[in-house]
UniProtKB/TrEMBL annotation:
Domain of life the protein comes from: Bacteria
Name of this chain's protein: GLUE N-terminal domain-containing protein
GO molecular function, one term: ubiquitin binding
Classification via Gene3D superfamilies: Pleckstrin-homology domain (PH domain)/Phosphotyrosine-binding domain (PTB) (2.30.29.30)
InterPro entries the record matches: GLUE_dom, PH-like_dom_sf
Domain GLUE N-terminal: 27-92
């Protein structure tokens, strides 16, 4: 495991129990010149702006110094979505102790919403 990945998991108290494989898959898609700021296994809702098509996917997401990258693998279906930080138009967040935190990233092409462990500090750091 990369040092920056390990540090981010510890900083945000992210449990990878039973989901270590998807974290490793995500790490394989990272380049050596980017630094992991946040990484976690999570559920993501991706809405395509043009068609309003919505997909709810289990996988792992990472915020790096260059981009947001999400990957999932369900049976034979595998997909990776990568968004450069320059393409991000806005970031919204909400949350409470009951449902957890939600971070929504809007781009011209997609809206990506993902769950995070609810802590105001975690949501603020990601935002």
């Amino acid at each position: 495991m990369r040092q920056d990945t390990d540090a981010a998991l510890k900083q945000f108290d992210v449990s990878t129990f039973g989901r270590g494989g998807i974290i490793n898959t995500l790490e394989e898609r990272l380049t050596p010149d980017e630094t992991v700021i946040y990484i976690a296994p999570t559920n993501v809702t991706v809405t395509t702006t043009a068609t309003r098509k919505t997909e709810k996917l289990p996988g792992a997401i990472a915020l790096t110094s260059r981009r947001i990258i999400f990957t999932y693998k369900v049976l034979l279906d595998h997909k990776t979505i990568s968004v450069d930080l320059a393409q991000v138009q806005s970031v919204n967040s909400r949350g409470n102790a009951m449902t957890g935190g939600h971070v929504e990233v809007l781009t011209m092409v997609n809206t990506i919403e993902f769950l995070v462990k609810y802590k105001k500090e975690t949501i603020a750091a990601i935002q």
